[in-house]
Every structure is written in C-alpha cells, then in structure tokens.
Design brief:
268 residues; Rossmann fold; 2 domains; 10 strands; 25% strand; disordered C terminus
C-alpha cells in the first residue's frame, strides 16, 4: 500500500506578543510514515505541536488533516474535538500517566469517550445493558492488545507510577494508541531512555507505522532515533523551517549542520 497525504501545514505562524515562536512554517506528513521534527531548544517544535493539538490557536496559517473520517481544519477546532473527532493523539515531554491507577486502567480510561457514548451517558452503563457490556469488552480487549505490544501484560494490575521509567514511556504511547488515532504526535519519547529502552521504542514505533498504518509526527533530540526510523525529517531553527527531506539529505544539509548537528567537518 502506498502512503497518502495525512497532514498539510501551510504558512503556520504563532506569535506571543513580540515573540514569533513559529514563523511561516509549511510541511506535510503522510499516513504510515514517521515524520520527525528536529531543531535546537527554542526552535518552536513544541509550540508547533501545541498548535496541532489545540493547546494554542495559531496566529495564522492552515493545518488540514485528511483521512477516511473526513477533512479537518485543526486551527478551527477545539482541542478536545481534535482528539475525539479528528483523531489526533499526543504524548508529552513529561510523563502524564494516572500514576495511582493500574497499568490496565490507564488504557481503559483512554477509551472514555467511546464507553460514555455506549453507556448513553450513564443509563446503559448504570443498568449494565448489552450495548455497554460489548463496548466495555472491546475496550478491555484493545487495552490488553497494546499491553502485549509494549510488553506490560504481566504488570497490568500494578500502579502505573510503580513502573520503571522506560516502561512508563511505552505505556503512554500504548494509551495514546487505545484512542485509535490517525495521527500520533510524540514529544521527545526517547528522552531519558537507555540503549535497550531506545531499541524497544524504535521497534514499537515502526510496528505502529508498518502494521497499523498510522502517521507518526515525532519531536526528538536523539539523532540515532531520528535517522534510523524516520521517513522524512523537518528541521526548525528560531521558529523557521530551514530544511526538509529524507534523513540522509537532512544529515548532509549545511544549514542543518550549522544549526543543530554541529559545524561541518573542516570548518574553521
């Protein structure tokens, strides 16, 4: 199967008073592809994610998400509708699990919207009607599927806060996948991981891309991750896009070398 255009960002700008955090940025991401957004600290990467996921309303620009569910102009949508209707899921730099809930419960609560609809917003759930029981069984099945994929089935009943750091990172991604997104936005998922955990993360993300045909938008500082699993790389510096292409092209781009990867070999 060939990839199709999933996300189109056109002339996106985000200003905070006199500060331009994202400056006229345009790029596209495809379904079943991993698109990495890289750049130095302060380049505007997280601000870009905040615009895409409804935390900020951009100053100007267009963000169109297109999949079999329809066409969605994200800049015109409220944040909760971007997640529930446009099917965009996100993780954050800082882990945001429900630490006092079990590992399994974290994945079931991610499916709250579907369960509430099935419950008729309480009545069907209150009386245990068949439509709710079936939805609940599907939610548990989906949760257990993703627990298996991230290797946490044996820990399903322990508190999420008791997991090692790397397991918590993978659990966050599993929780996002339980919402059945079309676009998965990951903000520095490899931060703080050791070499083994990074390898597990890479395997998980390529599985999501190749098996579930999900478009992944990735902010990451670990160039080993970016260059090994990304299909396309977008580079920001001071809020502007300075390069875009496949990893090998970006790796050799002089502007990228100067801005992010270090001075070119032999530079004075």
């Amino acid at each position: 199967m060939t990839a199709s255009k999933l996300l189109t960002v056109e002339h996106l700008t985000m200003r905070f008073g006199g500060l331009v955090a994202v400056d006229d940025v345009s790029f596209a991401a495809e379904t079943a592809r991993i698109t990495a957004v890289i750049g130095p600290n302060g380049a505007g990467k997280t601000t870009l994610f905040n615009c895409l996921t409804g935390f900020y309303v951009p100053t100007s620009g267009r963000m169109q998400l297109t999949h079999e569910g329809g066409e969605f102009l994200l800049e015109r949508m409220e944040g909760f509708r971007i997640a529930a209707t446009a099917k965009v899921a996100r993780t954050f730099q800082n882990i945001r699990l429900f630490r006092g809930m079990s590992v399994l419960e974290n994945l079931i609560v991610a499916q709250h919207n579907e369960l509430m609809r099935a419950s008729g917003y309480t009545l069907a759930g209150l009386f245990g009607l068949g439509v709710y029981r079936h939805a609940e069984a599907r939610a548990v099945e989906r949760a257990r599927y993703w627990l298996d994929r991230v290797g946490l089935t044996a820990r399903a009943d322990i508190d999420a806060g008791g997991l090692p750091y790397g397991d918590q990172r993978r659990l966050e991604i599993a929780r996002a996948m339980c919402t059945e997104p079309k676009l998965l936005c990951l903000d520095e998922p490899a931060a703080g991981l050791n070499a083994r955990e990074t390898g597990d993360l890479n395997a998980l993300l390529t599985f999501i891309r190749d098996t579930h045909r999900i478009g992944v938008l990735l902010i990451e500082h670990d160039m080993g991750v970016v260059m090994s699993i990304s299909d396309r790389v977008v580079v920001l510096d001071y809020g502007r896009k300075i390069a875009e292409g496949v990893p090998d092209e970006v790796r050799r781009d002089p502007d990228v070398i100067r801005a992010y990867l270090g001075e070119a070999e032999g530079a004075a």
